[in-house]
């Protein structure tokens, strides 16, 4: 289908209201296959306003007299209002936006057409391959190897082509372990913690079922993990489901690792919400943040009843448990829930941020996202199909990645000097996960990206974020490298609502942006002053 078939009108005169304290913008409104754009008149500012149609989550239209109003609620939580001249033009534009914003084809999405100046196709896709992280692990221990048993994605479609596994386990054993795990997600290394010689692994649930099936190769794999760690090492299996949920999963073919079959490993249940309940929590929070008429009591009640901060608390607590098990108890940790593509990745990535100073740098954090979310098989296309405003009944949507970003924001607030990136980086990742001109978050796994030729036909987000003009918005000017683990408090008094995101539609962003720029200016001036000062020897008088 051609885009032109979905565009019912070419242009119309309109006025755009973008939010609190922003002046209205009036001009000619046009629709393309991927964008809604408004060009001001010749007397006004020459800036062109542009909105990626993929960013539209819901659309409401009203007509009165000879004009109409379209309200666009966006996936990035912004609310826009268009006042359009002409009833027919209003209805045609609304229908066009509805049709173009809901196209599901990946290869007709904007990243396949986006060709920015200064970037070349293929740039930055090679920044974070599994081989890169394996080299870091190999410098510390020879107990692990890089396996290409999944080269054709036959073992696990949601794993990358190469994964890090115990050296003592051959590829045939990996294949049998994959058949015993949900979605083929056999245990693989997520992070090697050099100070304690322990490892963090992730996997899908074992398919023990009601018959209590076993897999000797899977058991061998986890024995090899402990054997490759320090002498006498033990392990914890952090199951992100409740005991009742795990028991119900066993009745339908899933299950847990039986204690007798996995000596040295102890199972710990730390239930984390996922799926529809998490999406509904997100929706209720956004609804509460957008209500400007409520009383203080009602606001506090709604904030509590949506349970979003409770999810943040539970997630941080579980990540701390995994990190403490490795750092303080010298234990290896395997994390899984059911599929192993949502709450599992949430915990493994946060545990690394707590323990690993490199993950808290700009480049290290980007590598962490690529390795633990993109390559590890988080289904971005399904989870981020809609945000908080959509009227469609949730199917596969869930703000798991947003919950991760919120937890990282809490870390940055509690440790303001320890992260090289700032809130701007987290907001950018949130926006690009839901609607982006780059191909990084397209599709649900590496197999799909390979079939769609995403790496050869689209630009990587990481190349866009590395542009000098972006760095000042993304970096933390107060960053000081911290070689130690950072232990966040998950107590209710320590957690805050992420106002920069959830209140962006009702509060102007300028004060925080101005403050951020002021901090940068102070730091820059200080560096210039220190650089221009003479050294002690030069300032001392001669004999």
Automatic annotation (TrEMBL):
It comes from the Eukaryota. Residues 242-262 are annotated as: Disordered. Pfam families: Myotub-related. Transmembrane segments: none annotated. Gene3D superfamilies: Pleckstrin-homology domain (PH domain)/Phosphotyrosine-binding domain (PTB). SUPFAM superfamilies: (Phosphotyrosine protein) phosphatases II, PH domain-like. InterPro entries: Myotubularin, Myotubularin-like_Pase_dom, PH-like_dom_sf, Prot-tyrosine_phosphatase-like. One of its GO terms (cellular component) is cytoplasm. One of its GO terms (molecular function) is protein phosphatase binding. GO terms for biological process: negative regulation of autophagy; phosphatidylinositol dephosphorylation. Residues 124-502 form the Myotubularin phosphatase domain. Belongs to the protein-tyrosine phosphatase family. Non-receptor class myotubularin subfamily. This is Myotubularin phosphatase domain-containing protein. It comes from Moschus moschiferus (Siberian musk deer).
């Amino acid at each position: 289908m051609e885009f032109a078939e979905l565009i019912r009108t070419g242009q119309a005169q309109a006025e755009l209201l973008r939010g609190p304290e922003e002046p209205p913008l009036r001009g000619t409104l046009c629709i393309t296959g991927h964008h809604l754009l408004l060009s001001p008149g010749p007397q006004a500012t020459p800036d062109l306003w542009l909105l990626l149609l993929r960013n539209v989550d819901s659309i409401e239209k009203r007509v009165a007299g000879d004009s109409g109003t379209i309200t666009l609620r966006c996936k990035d939580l912004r609310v826009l209002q268009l006042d359009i001249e002409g009833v027919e033009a209003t209805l045609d534009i609304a229908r066009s936006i509805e049709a173009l914003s809901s196209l599901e084809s990946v290869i007709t999405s904007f990243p396949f057409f986006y060709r920015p100046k200064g970037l070349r196709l293929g740039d930055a896709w090679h920044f974070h391959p599994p081989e890169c992280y394996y080299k870091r692990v190999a410098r510390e221990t020879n107990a692990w190897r890089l396996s290409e048993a999944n080269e054709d994605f036959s073992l696990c479609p949601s794993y990358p082509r190469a994964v890090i596994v115990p050296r003592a386990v051959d590829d045939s054993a990996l294949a049998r372990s994959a058949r015993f795990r949900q979605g083929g997600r056999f245990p693989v290394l997520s992070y090697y913690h050099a100070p304690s010689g322990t490892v963090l692994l992730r996997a899908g649930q074992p398919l023990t079922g009601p018959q209590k099936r076993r897999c000797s190769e899977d058991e061998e794999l986890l024995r090899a993990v402990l054997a490759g760690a320090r002498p006498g090492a033990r392990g914890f299996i952090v199951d992100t489901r409740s005991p009742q949920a795990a028991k119900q999963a066993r009745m339908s073919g899933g299950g847990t690792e039986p204690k007798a079959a996995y000596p040295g490993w102890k199972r710990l249940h730390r239930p984390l919400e996922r799926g529809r309940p998490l999406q509904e929590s997100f929706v209720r929070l956004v609804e509460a943040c957008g209500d400007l008429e409520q009383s203080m009591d009602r606001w506090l009640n709604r904030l509590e009843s949506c349970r979003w901060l409770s999810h943040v608390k539970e997630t941080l607590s579980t990540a701390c448990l995994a990190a403490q098990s490795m750092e303080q108890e010298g234990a290896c940790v395997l994390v899984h829930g059911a599929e192993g593509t949502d709450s599992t990745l949430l915990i493994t990535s946060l545990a690394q941020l707590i323990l690993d100073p490199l993950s808290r740098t700009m480049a290290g954090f980007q590598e962490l996202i690529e390795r633990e979310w993109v390559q590890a098989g988080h289904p971005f296309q399904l989870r981020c199909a809609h945000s908080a405003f959509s009227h469609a009944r949730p199917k596969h949507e869930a703000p798991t990645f947003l919950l991760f970003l919120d937890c990282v924001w809490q870390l940055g607030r509690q440790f303001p000097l320890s992260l090289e990136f700032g809130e701007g980086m987290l907001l950018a990742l949130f926006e690009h996960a839901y609607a982006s001109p780059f191909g990084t978050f397209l599709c649900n796994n590496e197999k799909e990206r390979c079939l769609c030729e995403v790496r050869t036909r689209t630009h990587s987000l990481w190349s866009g974020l590395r542009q000098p003009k972006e760095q000042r918005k993304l970096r933390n000017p107060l960053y000081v490298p911290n070689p130690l683990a950072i232990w966040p408090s998950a107590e209710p008094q320590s957690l805050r609502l992420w106002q920069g995101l959830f209140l962006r539609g009702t509060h102007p962003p300028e004060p925080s942006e101005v403050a951020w720029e002021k901090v940068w200016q102070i730091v820059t001036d200080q560096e210039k002053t220190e650089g221009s000062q003479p050294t002690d020897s030069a300032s001392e008088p001669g004999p």
